[in-house]
Amino acid sequence: DEVSDIFFSGSFCFPNYPWFAYESWGGYAYSNETSTEFRDYNDQFRNCVGSGAAGTRNFGVVYMPEGFYNMAFDVAGALDEGLEIPGMYVTNSAYALNSILNGDSYVTPFSEENGDYLTLKVEGLDANGTLKASVEVPLADYRAGEPAANSARNGNTKVLTEWKWVDLSPLGKVSKLRFSYDSSQKTYIPAYVCFDEVGAKDPALVGLDTPVADVLITVPVVDVLSVSGIEGAYSLHIYSTDGILRASHELCGASGV
Q: What is d(CA 181, CA 68) in angstroms, rounded to the nearest whole number?
């Protein structure tokens, strides 16, 4: 499977694998769909919230066909030892949620009787692609005695239908992240998950950090500005020579702008 396309978002480089012969694809994509309705395959790029995690239109979509293993994406500009990623937001796609709640031609609606579940696994890899650690995120969980997936759609507290912040600090410093999934109906469940704000801090702690001193750096005219050697979140403000603010970015770790 060759990478046919890539795209960057902040400090991350995502691969996309189009399969033109099958009118399908695998890997990572981005979307600005705001409808939460799922009618058919044309709606595969919608999430169940209708926006990004911060209320924006854009968000990421990952499709993980069973048996497809090239799911790692790079932390661009990471040093040899990697970077620590504080967290990210995830939610269900409209496609997966429809199958979970209503079933489809292949999936039986999830139920406690069958002990159904859908789980996202986020793995941290070093520069050589070796697995360091992983965290799991419940997207739907009907198993007896299991905690709710943190939702309230249709009174169903077993399915995630809002943006959920995921703590990625247990992964330590990583050079790559990789998504995979597991399910009680793994062969048939639509293997889509929506994600956003990779690198986001715990929302309960935002604004509580002690600010660091501003650093002013004069740079020549360039098309790409790379920042490395910074851990955690920081603000990048770009001014023209006349002192006018031209752009501001809230970033985490090393980034290209």
A: 11
